[in-house]
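cron nightly-structures :: item 1 of 1
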Amino acid sequence: MAGPAFAMTGWLALPQGLTYGRLSFREGIEAVTPLPPQAGAKRYILPGFIDTHVHGGGGGDVMDGPAGVQTLCRLHARHGTTSLLPTTMTAPWTQVLAALRGVRQVLDLQAAGGLTDGAQVLGAHLEGPFISPGRLGAQPAYAVQPTPEQVAEVLAQGCLRAVTLAPEVPGVAAAAQQLAAAGVRIGVGHTRADADQTDDFLDALASHPRLAATHLFNAMGGIEGRAPGAAGALLAHPAVFPEVIFDLQHVHPVSLLLARAACPDRVMLITDAMRAAGLGDGQSELGGQAVTVQAGRATLADGTLAGSVLTMDQALRNVVAAGIPLDEASRMASAHPARSLGLTDRGKLLEGQRADLVVLDEDLRITDVYLGGERLIAPQLTLGEP
């Protein structure tokens, strides 16, 4: 039986822009009704955020297994993320497979009606181990060259939705074809590939509708006039969806504006969050490596950035502070990632879409989150969060 009907009024982040109106919904959105703007109206209603690259949060990590996945889902739901891809670390092969099995168990739990207070898991993002050992970033040193048997093994876990690959690694070109044939989004990242290698890799996937740049600009070198590198090739490609970690640590605002100019309808906000997200400053870990979080910056002992402690609501506020309109920032957090995964049931405030909603006050702080029309009561920030 359908649940009770709800209605909210406020500034709606519609595909055509911010419009004052009323949103009526149950599990799905039933009506979007424009209304004359009301004086003093300060409420904004956005589609729920979709994070396609998140390792952890609230003390939980994907590599911990099902309990870690559930913990991170709960933390990020309180910050407006209604759908996500739990993302693995480069690790020994048995640990990678165990993490994927954990994601599969949470998918099964949600299908059975469990984890109603956490973001919906859409599948897993395999970040490594098929990456360059020379561009690990904060990934542990367990990169390997893929074999057809390994690719078949990860696909057999029944949960893979996205993967990060380094084009120059032997075996990766064939692995990409195998993964693309299974409908997996192919991302380029953690790579030493130059622009020509990246172009050749992408050209071989020309018929595949789901391509991405894994945390664009990070772990792939810079852009120069005579050496545009992987980042330049990815920005120039007409179908690639670039992920951006906009925590003001990983990416400069000018770099975000460059990505936006090159890919105006494809830039995706991600958190790349680690287990320390939501816990404030202090000591944590990532892939078995000690991490220090200070003033919102997470680093390994050698100073390497170690993922982030970002949440999607803070990423949205950062984007707006960089001068991008709220409705466009909303698309970066919802509509674009949905399209990158081929999702048609979420990411927009339209009739028939899932009622995954984020309600913000005039300072763009979250007041309510709805998951499939169910209200996540009184989202509270963890002590120590901004």
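cron nightly-structures :: done
The two ends are 40 Å apart (CA to CA).
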